[in-house]
Write a structure and sequence with these properties.
The protein is built from eight helices and no strands. It starts with a helix and ends with a helix. The longest helix is centred in the last third of the chain and has 21 residues, at about 150-170. It is mostly helical. It has helices spanning about 5-15, 15-30, 30-45, 60-75, 100-115, 120-135, 135-145, 150-170. The protein folds into two domains: about 1-80, RNA polymerase sigma factor, region 2, helix turn helix motif (Rna Polymerase Sigma Factor, Chain: A, Orthogonal Bundle), CATH 1.10.1740.10; about 95-170, Winged helix-like DNA-binding domain superfamily/Winged helix DNA-binding domain (Arc Repressor Mutant, subunit A).
């Protein structure tokens, strides 16, 4: 039977379920796989609740568990060294009503997916975690075991590469 403190930790961990799912989706490109992966993340996390020593560290710890689960998933699929031609689905916004706008949006999204897929792993990892997980630079640095400056530099290079790819494809 979980203690009251463990129940609070569980509740807090579950409050990040959307972040965990978006990160999983960003790494595995498929909603069904992302759901399975997110469930795996929570199974791992629940099994290791004793590793959380400070309540304020829950999000960072959970995101590290998420990242590691995503890396394990990619290793199983053999995509860590060779990227496939797809990238993570971009966060969805309001869908335009006009069919021509929907087609244009779909084309832009495909170009964005290719741009993210073409990023080197170190840049892509930071880009996906920051964009989909909405993680602070400090938490990203802790999660990845890097200095904040390194995280900021990688994110900047990733954004520049994606922007350049979009410009080459005719999008501003």
């Amino acid at each position: 039977m979980p203690t009251e403190a463990e129940n609070r930790l569980l509740d807090e961990m579950l409050s990040y379920k959307d972040d965990v799912f978006r990160i999983c989706l960003g790494f595995c490109h498929n909603a069904s796989d992302a759901e399975d992966l997110a469930q795996d993340v929570y199974l791992r996390a629940f099994g290791n609740l004793g590793r959380i020593h400070t309540p304020y560290a829950v999000k960072g710890w959970l995101l590290k568990v998420t990242r590691n689960a995503c890396l394990d998933h990619q290793k199983k699929k053999g995509v860590v060294r060779r990227f496939q031609g797809q990238a993570a689905a971009a966060p969805s916004g309001p869908v335009p009503d006009a069919p021509s706008n929907a087609v244009e949006r779909s084309q832009r999204l495909a170009v964005l997916k290719r741009a993210v897929a073409g990023l080197p792993w170190k840049l892509r990892e930071v880009f996906v975690l920051r964009l989909y997980g909405e993680i602070s630079y400090r938490d990203l640095a802790r999660t990845l075991g890097l200095k904040e400056g390194t995280v900021m530099s990688r994110l900047n290079r990733a954004r520049q590469a994606v922007t350049e790819h979009l410009k080459e494809a005719g999008y501003e």
